[in-house]
Write the structure tokens for this entry.
Amino acid sequence: KRGVPGPAASRAEEIAVIAFKTAFGRWIHDPGSPSLSGLLEEALAELRVLAASPEASGARIGAAWARAGPG
């Protein structure tokens, strides 16, 4: 948790797991995909864009992650 308050640390852990699952799913299902670390960076970047959008909501973010790939 590295000095981050409990609730924020828990959300960060959940986000990290979602990003990893998304990247890993893309990596194993597409033999021509970039490195796992590259896919993880892409998944995190997608999440940052979603979170920063003015119309971001839990339902829209959940739907976008569901479309992002296996996880």
User: Anything to note?
Assistant: The mean pLDDT is 80. The chain has three helices and no strands.
